[in-house]
What we know:
The chain is of the alpha/beta class and 316 residues long.
Amino acid sequence: MTAAPPKGEKYQRLLEACRGLPPVVTAVAHPCDATSLESAVEAQRLGLIRAVLFGPEARVRRTAAVAGLDLAGFPVIDTPHSHASAEAAVAAVRRGEAAALMKGSLHTDELMGPVVAREGGLRTARRISHCYVMDVPGHPDPLIISDAAVNIAPTLEEKVDIVQNAIELAQALRFPEARVAILSATETVNPKIPGTVEAAALCKMADRGQIAGGLIDGPLALDIAISPEAAAAKQIRSPVAGRANVLIVPDLEAGNMLAKSLSFLAGADAAGIVLGARVPIILTSRADSLMTHLASCAVAALVAAARRASPAAAVA
């Protein structure tokens, strides 16, 4: 068996994949703490983004001074508070002045409110969903997990978009193929567990071309999805079982617990991206490491590059 790459190496590959790509003009909403501001400055230094900062200018510059960050060459658009920062950043995207949106030191709800607003927001025909791109120590490939942050209890119709968004993310990240596991507690269809029935429906929808671009199987328990040994022991034979690199969870609670378990028990890093809006949205936590923030910017840069290459698919 090939040895798994050490912690962080998968994210380094993401950064390497961005070499030669033009920096993505990114509206950074309310970067008023050292972590979010340093992330924007370092991502620009690495050529991943070209940041436009939206926040109370005096506070942003004071934060930079305390953190020893040089904001020369960074436009700072003065706003009175976090809600105004989010609204101004979203408005800049709508005007075509930025091709990505980045969360600073404000709550996710504050940023996503103007994003999903029916008037003046960034909605498309596609359901907005969140993906973690996780670097799990000891696991050979990065894992995409969706949706652990936006859709609380998605319907079958919404899961179609969640799956399609995740597949198109895998393609943008240059996965050789997207192998999608629809997760549940069991690998058999049980009418008493609605997620298993929806998993079977999603697989049939993929067979009929309603979901495209990936290999899909489900329902699959987590062990069957990612462990070749577990799949072999239970005699589950499919091109996804034991080899999944995209994990679709039944609801937000399951996804959040899975992602946090990998982070806090397995030492995984979790880059965050929101898809389905007009532009990729870099969604990170203030507790994330600088490498995780940079990896999230790299994911957004690769998504933006994929959209430039295929404008018709610019809803993912």
